[in-house]
Amino acid sequence: MAEAIQPPERPRPESGSGEAEARRVAESSSLLVRWMSIGDANSGGFIHGGTVMRLVDEAAGLAAIKHSGRRVVTAGMDRMTFNTPVFVGELLRCTASVNAVWRSSMEVGVRVEAENPFTGETRHTSTAYLTMVALDEGRPVPAPKLIAESDDERRRQREAEVRRANRLAERDQILGGR
Q1: Which of 19, 98, 126, 159 is the most exposed place for a label (fewest CB within 10 A)?
Q2: Taking the domains of the chain in order of start, what are their residue ranges?
Q3: pTM of the model
Q4: Is 90 exceeded by the pLDDT of residue 49?
């Protein structure tokens, strides 16, 4: 009889402070690739936007888990653009990286590309920004700080701060009008 296979063990950080060690952007990057089939298509014959959104959420979750070392939940999707359609038979590639970290929340940027598996031609189809929250026993906990090393990483971090400020200002404006 074969030995039972166990699921991977989740590490439990020693302190709940989230200040363990800061992590580099590259340490938490994630790549999710999936072949798009007829079951993923909408009535127009293109890949359903909801299918793309689900895969974007999964890729963002992976990056946030790798960064925080914790279970995470999606707190929101700030923006999702659909530039070009994705077709049946193409590979959908979601590349995610943590752009900024606050206390327990992280902005994760996801770039979506479609690849023709026969020719290797790729095109940028979508971009999304999601806010993920690190949890321990169902409660938000601090996430490790982010080390942005390159000019591009520092630019993405600055832009994430602008998006966060806009989200908070919009929330305050909406709640102030009630």
Answers
A1: 19
A2: 23-176
A3: 0.87
A4: yes
Distance of alpha carbon 95 from alpha carbon 89, whole angstroms: 19
Distance from first CA to last CA of the chain, Å, rounded? 65
pLDDT (mean) for 149-165: 96
Residue type, 173: Q
- Residue 66 structure tokens: 């790798």
For residues 52 and 80, what is the distance between their CA atoms, to the nearest angstrom? 10
| 122 DSSP β-pair partners | 115
Beta-carbon neighbour count of residue 82 at 10 Å? 15
Question: What is the distance between the alpha carbons of residues 170 and 156, in angstroms, rounded to a whole number?
Answer: 21
Burial class (CB in 10 A: 0-12, 13-18, 19+), 3: exposed
